[in-house]
């Protein structure tokens, strides 16, 4: 039987999570093209998740999850080392779970293309995080057919507000991008002057 303190902390965390998700939905659920993802994030890596650790923030009112990632390739930005820690809102501590609807899901042993930037999270300043939530995480999937390795947005299946071109599908669509083509596109977009980046696929 959970204690009263556990129940209260859980209720408070869920209330804050709902509030945070609601404010995040206003921006992160607006459909983002690959151009936009590249131009609005400072760091883009291809990496494998080594481990995850969920914990209460210092104030004890919100659950965060630190994800340790081994970067195999840096497509934009620079890193001091190849291991980095990405902090996500939400997670599970004991019997309490904070769920961010539409958040990125990063699982140990799996590889991703991650679009990262610094943001203030509950109780943590300047955390390296996936600001675009599910739109900023692409699963690397190897198909046993001629399509080969592909990068598929985790935002598939999540309702997205149409962008200025009226597009509502996650970047790359349900089939995703051929991995090597996506890598080259990201590098090409990152090399453009900022004013040249356009909302196109």
Walk me through the structure.
By secondary structure, this protein is α+β, with helices and mostly antiparallel strands. It has helices at residues 4-28, 34-40, 179-191; strands at 43-56, 63-76, 83-89, 91-93, 96-98, 111-121, 124-129, 137-142, 149-153, 177-178. Strands 1, 2, 3, 6, 7, 8, 9 and 10 form an eight-stranded antiparallel β-sheet that branches. It has a two-stranded antiparallel sheet with strand order 4-5. The chain is globular. It starts with a helix and ends in a 10-residue tail after the last helix. 35% of the residues are buried. Mean pLDDT is 86; it is low at 1-28.
Task: Please give a handful of descriptors for the protein shown.
3 helices; disordered N terminus; two-stranded antiparallel sheet; eight-stranded antiparallel β-sheet; alpha+beta; 201 residues
- Estimated helix fraction: 10-25%
SSE-based structural type: alpha+beta
Q: What is the count of helical runs? A: 3
Straight-line distance between termini: 52 Å
Rg from Cα: 17 Å
Report the sheet-strand fraction: 35-45%
Largest sheet: 8 strands, antiparallel
Count of β-strands: 10
Integer average pLDDT: 86
Q: What is the 3D form?
A: globular
Write the element-wise H/E pattern from the N-terminal end onward.
Answer: HHEEEEEEEEEEH
Domain unit count: 1
Which spans of ≥5 residues are poorly predicted at pLDDT below 50?
1-28
């Amino acid at each position: 039987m959970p204690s009263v303190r556990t129940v209260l902390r859980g209720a408070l965390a869920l209330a804050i999570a709902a509030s945070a998700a609601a404010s995040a939905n206003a921006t992160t659920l607006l459909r983002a093209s690959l151009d936009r993802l590249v131009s609005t994030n400072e760091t883009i890596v291809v990496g494998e998740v080594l481990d995850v650790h969920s914990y209460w923030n210092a104030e004890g009112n919100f659950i965060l999850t630190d994800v340790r990632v081994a970067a195999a390739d840096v497509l934009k930005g620079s890193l001091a080392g190849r291991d980095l820690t990405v902090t996500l809102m939400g997670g599970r501590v004991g019997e309490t779970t904070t769920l961010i609807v539409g958040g990125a899901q990063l699982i140990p042993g799996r590889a991703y293309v991650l679009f990262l930037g610094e943001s203030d999270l509950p109780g943590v300043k300047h955390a390296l995080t996936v600001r675009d939530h599910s739109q900023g995480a692409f699963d690397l999937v190897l198909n046993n057919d001629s399509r080969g390795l592909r990068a598929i947005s985790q935002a598939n299946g999540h309702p997205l507000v149409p962008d200025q071109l009226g597009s509502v599908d996650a970047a790359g669509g349900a089939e995703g991008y051929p991995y090597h083509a996506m890598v080259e596109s990201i590098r090409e977009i990152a090399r453009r002057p900022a004013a040249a980046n356009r909302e196109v696929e």
